Amino acid sequence: MYPKINPRRRGLRIAVWSLVTALVVAAGPVGVVLWQHSYAMDERRVSIRHGGHTLNGVLAIPKDNHKHHGLVVYVHGDGPVDATHDDGYKPLWEANAKAGYASLSWDKPGVAGAPGNWLGQSMDDRADEAAAAIAWARARPDIDGDRIGLWGASQAGWVLPKVAAKAPVSFVIAVSPAINWLQQGRYNLLAQLRADGASPGLTQAAIARSDTTRRLLERHATFEEYVKSMGGDVDGMTADRWGFISKNHTADATQDLRALRGVPVLLALAGHDINVDTADTERIYREVLDAGGALTAKRYPDATHSFLKQSIEQSDLKTTLTALFAPRSLFADGFLDGQRQFLKDLDRGSSATP
User: Fold this and answer.
1) In the sheet that 143-153 helps form, which strands lie side by side, from edge to edge?
2) Domains: count for the chain
3) Is 166 in the same domain as 240?
4) 90 and 13 part of one domain
5) Total-model pTM
6) What are the tens digits of pLDDT across the range 262-274?
7) Which domain holds residue 10?
């Protein structure tokens, strides 16, 4: 005879197994998230002294047991960006690590507790910052000083060549970099209006507002004058932001790009970029750099300005879920592999040189 099962014990057993099942189901997605956000590199917090203050940075080192690594120094685009770009840089750092390269990035001034205010910086200030970071890295025994290069996106287009003029670099990865501040601003305005389906009237009003802003910048108007000219409708503009734009609106990378002649440059261009006129960028890069034969231009048809897949960026839900469960898949097809291959080819080229 089989023993009788106590109803209360049977109920407890069912409750326990139900709880276990629920935990397993819940742990599955959590495990996937943890696994997907585990990258093949070691991240270390570092401090870099520059201009009397400290840059709060992150150094990501490959897990390959080598004593010396090349280094990719990151130059941010616009906005209050922290060292990891809210972890968005990590898939790129991992691609670098797979090629045997470390990655270095730092919080912009005033971001994540860092001292200062990034809106008080000129493009030259930002270049000085990056040059100081390169000097710091060259003094480290785990970094190969002959294999240090730059990575920069968007607004960094005005910074990268300035850095190269201050500190020798072995390569540059330029991701949809801008050329001329005012021209790119007008391109972005018109592209955004088209994307939004703006009416002719709204388009003309936006252009008129932009023209007024340009005239104010040309005569070095104060923020108070800007507010008055706009009838109090500042559309999110702050005094600090106005100061930043006033300081940098004449930026143009065309002449500065000459500092990159002979330096291997990977120019990555997005197919759905409404921020930067990529055709104009490619034209200028080719005019200035093609003669040296060191420019590689690659277009990514499915990429937006942020180099996410357009199909993902168009949906907040898709962006969130992909960032959680498959962060490497956020990026345009071939973008991560392209950078990894570029770095590997650099090393092959240098080792093949007599």
Assistant:
1) 41-50, 53-62, 101-106, 69-75, 143-153, 172-175, 265-272, 295-304
2) 3
3) no
4) no
5) 0.88
6) 999 999 999 999 9
7) 1-36
